[in-house]
Amino acid sequence: MRDLVDVHYPTAEKVVLVMDNLNTHKLSSLYEAFDPEEAHRLRDKLELHYTPKHGSWLNVAEIGFSILKRQCIPFRVANINVLRNTVKSFITQRNAEKRVVNWQFTTSDARIKLRHLYPELYAKILLLQGTSLSVLIKKEASSSKDWALIKQTIY
Questions:
Q1: From CA 108, how far away is CA 90, in angstroms rounded?
Q2: Which CA distances in Å does 93 have to 20, 42, 57, 71, 103?
Q3: Is residue 42 within 8 Å of residue 34, measured between CB atoms?
């Protein structure tokens, strides 16, 4: 983190990071690695955003690891040097071929797939699209909690 803040982006007001929910990917981890003053300085320069839990398919790094596992090491490797050489060769080949992740997940897909995480936002979107209130209630208010969120959103 210090390298990102001080070397790669020293003039940035904020360094915005998108990470998975690994327990070490929290700002509190800075206080375990650095003295309090340095941790505070770094914390003030960082803005963290997290991919959804159980959403590894949204994380391009996780997609890369999945490709690595399926195409390069779909077997158990008993020797660490064999593993290192196999992975290094695979990465060198993919880089030479200029292989990229073909990201196909759109904002529309996200609204459908993740709508259960943001019911009040979804209700607003439906209303803005002209969905009638009665259709919205029938379609989305499967519980009293859902109805409360929709009611709060509308009124």
A1: 34
A2: 27, 36, 24, 12, 20
A3: yes
pLDDT interval class at 63 (50, 70, 90): confident
Comparing 150 with 50, which gets the higher pLDDT?
A: 50
Pairing of strands 15-19, 46-50: parallel
Distance in angstroms (rounded) separating the CA atoms of residues 55 and 62: 10
How many CB atoms neighbour CB 128 within 10 A? 8
For the segment 10-40, what is each residue's pLDDT rounded down to a tens digit? 999 999 888 877 666 788 888 999 999 999 9
User: Is residue 140 a contact partner of residue 99, using CB atoms and an 8 Å limit?
Assistant: no
b/e burial code for range 64-80 (CB count within 10 A of at least 16 → b): eeeebeeebeeeeeeee
Q: Which two tokens mark 117?
A: 């995480």
DSSP string, 10-36: TT-S-EEEEE---TTSSTHHHHHHS-H
Contact predicate 119/146, CB 8 Å: yes
Partners of residue 19 on adjacent β-strands: 50
Express each pLDDT in 111-144 by its tens digit: 677 766 666 666 666 666 666 655 555 555 455 5
